[in-house]
Design a protein that fits this description.
Helix 3 packs across helix 5. The protein folds into two domains: 247 residues, no CATH class; 139 residues, no CATH class. The strands form two sheets. Strands 1, 2, 3, 6, 7, 8, 9, 10, 11 and 12 form a ten-stranded mixed β-sheet that branches. The longest helix is centred in the middle third of the chain and has 26 residues. The protein has 13 helices and twelve strands. The chain is globular. The chain has 432 residues and is of the alpha+beta class. The chain starts with 18 loop residues before the first strand and ends in a 7-residue tail after the last helix. A hairpin with a 2-residue loop joins strand 2 and strand 3.
Length: 432
Amino acid sequence: MTTAENTEGTVFEPARTVHVDVHLIQSFPYSNLNRDRQGAPKTATYGAKVRGRLSSQLTRRHTRTDLEEALGIRALRTRQVPQQVAAVLAERGWDYRQALAAAQMLIYCARVKGLGVADTGGTNALLFLPEAALTDFADLADAEREQLTAALAKADAELAKAKKKPAKKTGDSDDDAAAQAEDGEEEAESAAGKVMVKHAPKELKDPVLAILRSRNAAVAAYGRMLANEAASTVNGAVQVAHGLTTHQLSVQVDFFSAVDDVLTGGTESGAGHIGDQRYTTGVYYRYASLNWHELLRNVDGDEATAREVLEAFIRSFITTVLPAKGNNTAAFTLPHLVYTVVRTDRPVNLVGAYETPVQAAAEGGFLPGSLAALSKHAAASDRFLGTKGRAFHAHAGLVEDTVPALGERLEGIDDLVDSITRSVAGLRGPAK
């Protein structure tokens, strides 16, 4: 699964577009699941009221790692590809410095505009690659060791020669000198990159690009974009919304102290540390959608692989633990409601149910109002769009009663996943 083409060399196009929407209503206790740069819980203003927010990036990261574990694969989003490849080569007997230089030269062999090596030794941009790509790079370096070594020697000689040239005169002021020094460093870095590209073996461009374009199920699901290298781009099949509380909330401050276990009185007493943390509580609406059309295309029409990814993603989105401050809050809850819809028209986010914040029930709690609002909004959406494009819908979760307008109530996640898979499998034929 390294290209977007099938065995006949034509781009795979599934018979119809299918979207699998997953909606969650989940209550979280006193917690700080997603922090901003000040360490406070992330919030958003929606319906003119402050809501708790769980960023889509947070959800995508944790569901991806959970999906990878379930499927027994791994993809790496990192700038450390050269260092990781060098580590593999070092295990094979290479000198680490030579291995790192060779791995860096391979990056330049791709001749992708803007992609190079940073001062830290890694790439200057994040790459998202299957873990197996590290071995592929190492195998290529092994096979082309002589050619890479010769290219590095030529590049090093040219860079050494350039360093011997007289430096430019600096300005009169300290500011001018500092500015020219910075400009000089940038020019030197740019010049070094150009020299490396100049001597990078052209014969290795296609093999390196093939590795950069490789993908596994995680890349197929979550997508990838590498600037100036369109063939490496994968349109992700998974779309995730920012989670929002169904109601207005305020951030709560917790004063805490840490006891010093050694101090027992005498000249010193009291806490070893004091401070405050910020937390929230709330009922969140969370939404994600998987584009079956894109997923099939990204796995070259392999339905078995696509079904595995679909099932793993649904389970991951429903059950993944958001671990931030887990030791202090243990906010490892399950959704009170999971509502799934298979659609053949377009994805539908039902967050509009909460544009007007839910009010707490008379006996307390936001869950009853949250469930009722979702049911009402789903029914309104069905009236507006019609139900022709809704191939399947059902719900499950901790709720004991059937929720009107949300389809059949199923007992658990296994029933839900099996029903969705059967529904999607039944939509292979051409759209009517």
